[in-house]
Amino acid sequence: MTQLGSDACPARVAVVGAGPAGFYAAELLLKSTHRVKVDLFEKLPSPYGLVRYGVAPDHPKMRTVTARFDRTGQHEDFEYFGNISLGHDIDFDTLRNFYDAVVITTGAQEPRLLGIPGEKLPGSYTARPFIRWYNAYPDYKGPDYNLDCDTAVVIGNGNVALDIARALASSNDKLAATDMATHAVRALADSQIKTVYIVGRRGPIQSSFSYQEINELDELDNCDIEIDTLDLALDESDQEELDMKERRQPRRFLPQLQKYADSGSGKECRIVFKFLRSPIRIEGNDKVERIVLEKNRLEGAPGKRKAVATGETETISCGLVVSSIGYRGKAVDGIPFDEKRGVIPNSEGRVTKDGQQVPGLYVSGWIKRGPTGVIGTNKVDSKETVNILLDDLPRLQACPDRDSAALRRQLTNAGARPVDYDEWLAISAAEQAAGEASGKPRERFTRIADMLAVLD
Ligand code: NAP
User: Fold this and answer.
1) Torsion-angle region of residue 17: left (phi > 0), alpha (psi -120 to 50) or beta?
2) Nearest-CA neighbor of 389 among 353, 360, 354, 352?
3) Ligand 1 pocket test: which of 208, 278, 305 has the largest number of ligand atoms within 8 Å of its C-beta?
4) pLDDT by residue (tens digit) across 112-166?
5) Is the pLDDT of residue 89 over 80?
6) What is the pLDDT of residue 1?
7) In the structure, which protein residues have their CB atom closer than 6 angstroms to any atom of ligand 1?
8) What DSSP assignment string belongs to 26-52?
């Protein structure tokens, strides 16, 4: 039989999930020395995943990578199947019939939970719906945020916690100039929140903040940043840990935290860092009224220090709690899943089941390695997966159905509405035009039906 990956028989690869890992995988496959046709499936009409629906609205530079993704979108061997959800519009067996290999890049969509009493009270939420709310995730079904309280508490010491704190504390002029959803800009303009606590269970050196995110808090002109200088004092173990390679970011941002601790006060709002504290309870009658924190001390060798409860507690009165303690992947029908780690089990990107490779099935991005790293980390990750897939190419079983147009017809006949890349660009242009009218970079559609109406 003709070799898969030749001009006579291009390899057919389906990539599922149009976030950064998916686009990087598609780009690398299309640029390989083999002839590969890539079809990218995405459950929303809009591509870009986390770049569009995760990155903070005040970080437009991080979104410029979409220009690169759009170049992939225009490649002659690339097709986009937006608005097609695996497990809903198409099942895994059909996908296997049409593609020699499938790469799953669906990200980590489920929040990790604190597992403490009161976590489900109105006013206590996880980061994911909050971010979707302000980023205009289509057909958002999460809570309407009541910002009619003076204090919010964000749990977690990662960059997502800082994104949320900035959104809650930024001046409205700043937010209105971004492509934040208009409903969120309005709600935040009416917000009564004056104090945002950021609570971490370990110390600043063990936090996952990046230097850039800590540094840019300086740009919040309306807001004081407060830290207890005692939290910044270093003992011998801290100093040893700070010198470690993996603590490069804290090494860089510690002087900036010190600068905040020494700076003045009296601005209209404040962000207060509270380190070495774990939430143990959220209290209130029928909504959040306060959160109880327990103080921790650190135990263990430098680099492996764990938070250990001291028994001493502290209560903060607040009306909003957002926990931002990481994400986990969601199982996809028909595909192995490691419930404990929240990822698809794999070896260097080859999906495995009971330790054996599942032929023709690959994975990349957060659903492969867990929710770590910045957007560019997904390029390295997808490179590993794509190289492995290309190595496997001579051994892959050729799929029987090799016509993407036939699949598109099949999906349409079954009542789905696949969106191609030119159609996505038309939706995007409509958003930009609407934004011009309201002085924003774009006015994002909040409903899938409105996106599709552009194509009528
Ligand atoms: P993250 O960086 O993994 O941070 C999670 C935080 O939650 C950690 O401080 C962790 O503390 C804490 N945590 C976990 N379980 C907890 C519990 N039960 N109680 C209290 N605290 C708990 O996750 P993330 O902030 O969601 O970010 C995900 C990834 O996206 C990261 O790689 C991040 O850098 C990236 N990101 C980057 C940017 C940017 O570049 N601007 C923006 C947003 C996100 P421990 O360390 O003690 O476990």
Assistant:
1) left
2) 360
3) 208
4) 999 999 999 999 999 999 999 999 999 999 998 989 999 999 999 999 999 999 9
5) yes
6) 59
7) 114, 155-161, 163, 200-202, 206-208, 210, 213, 278, 324-326, 371-374
8) HHHHHTSSS-EEEEEEESSSS--THHH
